[in-house]
Structures are given as structure tokens and as C-alpha cells.
Amino acid sequence: MYNFRIGLLRALVKSGYDVTVIAPKDNDISLYEAEGVRFIPVDIECRGTNPFKDARLISQLKKIYNREKFDFVFHYTIKSVIYGSFAAALSKTSHISVITGLGYTFIRNGLLKRITVLLYTLSLKKAKEVWFLNTDDMRVFLDRKIVKQEKIYLLNGEGIDTTTFQPKEKKKKYFSFIFIGRILWDKGVGEYIKAARILKKEYPEIRFQLLGALGSENPAAVKPERMDKWVNEGIIDYLGETRDVTSYIANSSCVVLPSYREGLSRILLEAAAMERPIITSDVTGCKEVIENSISGFLCKPKDAENLMECMKKMYLLSEEKRVEMGKRGREIVLEKFDEKIIINQYIEKLDEYL
Q1: In DSSP terms, which residues pair with 277 in a beta bridge?
Q2: Assessment of whether the complete model's pTM goes beyond 0.90
Q3: Is pLDDT above 80 for 52?
Q4: Any idea which fold 176-330 has?
Q5: pLDDT value for 104
Q6: Quick one: 111 exposed, middle or buried, by C-beta within 10 A (0-12, 13-18, 19+)?
Q7: 6-159+338-353: what fold?
Q8: What does the alpha-carbon distance between residue 279 and residue 110 come to, in Å, rounded to a whole number?
Q9: Which of 109, 227, 254, 327 keeps 20 to 30 A from 127, CA to CA?
Q10: Ranges for all domains in the chain classified under CATH 3.40.50.2000
């Protein structure tokens, strides 16, 4: 539930704060314990879409907040922002809600979207501030009158540890594109496969890879049977899932994410920090990371043909030009998205309120 990175947790502990993470029970708590961070588990269906069923989370969190008497709470992800904010208001706990992305419910219209908008509007009334990772999401909330202008605060993402994600030598000699992320249609997986199918006929030597979790409860999830079909067709190599993407990025020639919308894409930032050129959609949460034709290429969203053209263009570039693109990508991350910059913003805000 609390999507703190370890670097931020470590910095807060070093600054003298007692830090607690509240998250679903299936989280690996060893990383938190190593940093001197307490962990409190809660029951939550991360991918469930029934807001009435999820409302019991308010009671769980209210009990925790009343018992622990936290000085300040940060809420992350849709469910914790909505239900955690209600719980914080009921327990009179000071809190900030961080909108890390609008997710599935805002990409598609319908009853669920209308309910979600209403719940956001009601729950955020007592938040000290509402933080956003990009200006487009911020404008959506302002235009829909979900939150008032005076509560808005803009972050440049969640920060990247540029010492962990740094340039590494590519050991694989073949040219490869890699898609890294949850295997969802809304991430542009279908467009990636279509583009790969076309390019494979003209350039059979190129490898197209997919790395990420299958079997998600998300309505936009790709079924495992579909993945098996793509693999058997010889279009892509499915690499499974991992907690450490650094070696996969290092051994790729280019990272591709043709997503329909993001909060602020972490995988693109990680790839850029490791000096890999990127190809991504000209959409919210992706376009902020790239300088088009300088650190990579922007493609049209939901357009497999245009994505294919961008991938072909990348493949036909000289190695020197791709290296140059990668170097500019890391410069962008260091200038705007380095973890140290974001951590300082958190600490300054906590000092201000506490």
C-alpha cells in the first residue's frame, strides 16, 4: 500500500523519523526490517474492482491509525488514497495523498469511473495536500473539481537511484528490443507484438523480448494462453518476471513501452538512467521522460504501424548514435528525476508540517 522505495525509507530513518509501512500481507518485509522500518500488514484485494467490498479497508486502517497515533501518513495507489484518506480523516490523522497514476478506471468510461471520481472527491477533502507525478493527471483532478488548486503539489516522479541504475556493458551481441512491465493490453503489449511481427519478417535477426508478470486480476491482463501462442509463433521471447531488472536492461539494445497512460513510468526512467535509448508513446507519464529523437523516439499511442516505424528507425541507427541517445537519457534523469531530489522534497514537507 505504501509504495515507498527503500532509498526514501532509509533517508527518513537517517533523518530521525520512526517509519512504518502498511501494506498487504504478501509483501517481503525483510527489506523493511533491514532498514529499521516497522511493517503492519492489512487485508486488501489489490486488483479487485468492487469499491463497496473494499470499503472494509477503512475500518482496518482507522483502527491502526487510532492505535499507532502517527504524526503523519502518506497514501499511495488508488485504494489506499481513497480508503486510507477516509480512515485518516475519521481518526484525525494528518496525511498527504500521492496520485501515482489514474489507472484502468480512468482510461475507460463507465460506472466504475464515476464511482471512483466521487470517492476521490469525498476522500481528499481532509488531505493536507494532494501530490501528482505529472501535470496531465493534475489537470484531470482540477477540471473535474476533485481537488482544489491550493492543495496541489507536483513531483518529478518517485525518484530513481542512479547508483543502482547506472550504465553497464551490454554482453549480448545481438540486437534486442525489450518490453518490461505488467503484461497488460493497456501497456501497449498488443501494439508491441504487432510491430514485432512485421519487423521479424524483414529483420529476422532482431529479438523481441517481454519481461513482466502474467496472471494479473486486472481486466486488461493478457491471458497466459495468449502469451504461449506468441512464443510458439516465434515472435517474442517471454522472460518471465523478476525483482531485479538491471541485467535485462543492460543486455537490451532499446527499451520499448507503448503504454496508453502512466503516472510517470519508472521503467523508462530506469532504462534511461542505464543509458539505454527508449521508445514510448506520446502520452501522459511517458512523454515527460524523453526528448524525442534525442534520447529515443516518441510513437503515436495505440498505433502499431507507427511503433514499428520507430523501432525500425532505432534498429537502423548507428551504434554510436544509440550510445549518444542513451547518454542524453541519463543526463535527463540526473537533472530532473534523481532520487535525492525527490527525497529532499519529502523531508522538506515533513519538516514544514511537523
Answers
A1: none
A2: no
A3: no
A4: Rossmann fold (3.40.50)
A5: 62
A6: exposed
A7: Rossmann fold (3.40.50)
A8: 31
A9: 109
A10: 6-159+338-353, 176-330
